[in-house]
Amino acid sequence: MFWILVMKSKKYLLGVLITKIKKLAKSEWFSHNALLGG
């Protein structure tokens, strides 16, 4: 039971981390394109 909770929390934290990285990468990409285009 305990290990299931640990695995679930790990998956959740990994998902949060991936979401943050994706958002960060997207904003970085947009600002980079804005610099190139502007």
UniProtKB/TrEMBL annotation:
Superkingdom of origin organism: Bacteria
Name of the protein in question: Uncharacterized protein
